[in-house]
Amino acid sequence: MHTKEEKLAAFEKLLDVLDQLREKCPWDKKQTNESLRPNTIEETYELCDALIAGDKKDICKELGDVLMHVLFYSKIGSETESFDIADVCNQQADKLIFRHPHIYHPSQIGKTHPKPLPYGEEENDREFADAKTADQVLQNWEQIKLKEKDGNKRVLSGVPRSLPSLIKAFRIQEKARNVGFDWEDRQDVWKKVREELDELEAELGKEDKDKSVRELGDFLFSVINAARLYHLNPDTALEHTNQKFIRRFNYVEDHSIKSGKPLTKMSLGEMDQLWNEAKEKENVKE
User: Fold this and answer.
1) Quick one: DSSP state of residue 116?
2) What is the DSSP string of 196-210?
3) pLDDT for 126-170, tens place per residue?
4) Of 81, 165, 173, 201, which is the most buried if we count CB atoms within 10 A?
5) Model-level pTM?
6) Which residues contact residue 152 at a Cβ distance below 8 angstroms, ignoring those fewer than 6 apart?
7) What is residue 10's three-state secondary structure?
């Protein structure tokens, strides 16, 4: 892999290219924070697609696209003398140092080359300094954020409003857990899941759409909670199922195209048979 010097040189090269494009390219010249935002969202989702597929070449490419957007916003910030990429990097580094007191002493904030505490020499009299496990670090992280001058004032205020609902529910539950609001025994969550399912079925039986929607939300929230307690990411799990459904449905549709019989003319039994064939083929490959 590359040396640190080579990495810095590559970063400098990209900064130079962006500077030239911003000056000479008509499209790059006219971009603003507002115009770039939709593209940033798209690039982020493309990176997520590459990550879920495990395509290392594609991950590298999409990371570059996302990095370009980070640099572009920083470039725009520098043009109004609000901030530049150095401010972004320094602020992030100082935030990480502050939130890892089990690794860094607070005096390292603002240092060009911060030095971690020697292993086994954490200052245990300092609050949060004796975190030894990943769970302890996560719990401390949320509490430390509340102490920051410009940090979140409420435990859940750091959850972006625009997050997709499934991911938002997972993050809400994680943040609540990190301050101690969680099930004492994860097995107990299944009682809650069944309770919410029963309430959903009851409202569906009454054909009350508004209450049914609320109960469906409660049921989904409880299932997400169960996934979290068993260290499963529900968004990743659902995306795997989405991709599996697409593959199997495409198999059915491919057969429909080859046979010249439209899907709308196929019986459910015929489609089920093809679906099961696709399932069997996947099982053989696995």
Assistant:
1) P
2) HHHHHHHHHHHT-HH
3) 566 667 787 777 667 667 766 666 666 788 887 888 889 999 999
4) 173
5) 0.68
6) 145, 146, 158
7) helix
